[in-house]
């Protein structure tokens, strides 16, 4: 996700967007590009094609992030590649490259990304959790307020008001299961409309304490692994 050249809800940032455009033009002028598309995740929110762009064996998506021309939008690295892209972004952040190069820019992008929950941006950041946890044994109290990544099988699904659902994953110590709160628009976008008991899910979201009584995961992303 590179800086915007034109006005948008994210703001306009040609000072940092033009170097990203220049890098792309330079690379694409040298050879033909190959597009790698996930058939299960072809388009984004605005109907635009999602792909990994490769030129002469170079992953251009990864190169943009590692050079600081883009941040890592974690929604599009599932289930593979998370750690590779996260470490590339951490490298650019810690070396102060591109969008991370000066204080005002760093502050603006960190605030935006923290609000959108899309990035890890540094290995020292408390939200950097690359290891996938087993849903049956995870202790959410150790991850309060952090992103967690878990894999587990659905034990049951409970319908709530206004299209919300509690998806319970099998857990050895929680009688009902590990609760994951989700909403209808999320499930539609993630292609989870037809999930059912026994399905294997990989989930990422915030570990939260609901009403000071029940630990649960607030869904951010998910993928069906059946």
Please report the distance between the alpha carbons of the first and last residues: 29 Å
Gyration radius, in Å: 19 Å
Helix-and-strand structural type: alpha+beta
Topology as H/E string? HEEEHHHEEEEHEE
**Tally of distinct domains:** 2
Shape descriptor reads globular
Proportion of β residues? Answer: 25-35%
CATH architecture of the largest domain: Beta Barrel
- Give the strand tally: 9
InterPro entries: SNase_OB-fold_sf, Staphylococal_nuclease_OB-fold
Protein name: TNase-like domain-containing protein
Domain TNase-like: 1-102
Characterise the protein shown here.
InterPro entries: SNase_OB-fold_sf (IPR035437), Staphylococal_nuclease_OB-fold (IPR016071). The protein is an alpha+beta fold. It has 2 domains: 14-116, OB fold (Dihydrolipoamide Acetyltransferase, E2P) (Beta Barrel), CATH 2.40.50.90; 132-224, OB fold (Dihydrolipoamide Acetyltransferase, E2P). It has helices at residues 14-28, 60-66, 82-95, 103-116, 184-190, and strands at 34-36, 52-55, 58-59, 132-134, 147-159, 165-169, 178-182, 200-210, 214-224. It has a 5-stranded mixed barrel with strand order 5-6-7-9-8. A hairpin with an 8-residue loop joins strand 6 (165-169) and strand 7 (178-182). Helix 2 packs parallel to helix 3. The longest helix has 15 residues, at 14-28. It starts with 13 loop residues before the first helix and ends with a strand. The model has no long low-confidence stretch (mean pLDDT 82).
Topology:
Blueprint: H1 14-28, E1 34-36, E2 52-55, E3 58-59, H2 60-66, H3 82-95, H4 103-116, E4 132-134, E5 147-159, E6 165-169, E7 178-182, H5 184-190, E8 200-210, E9 214-224
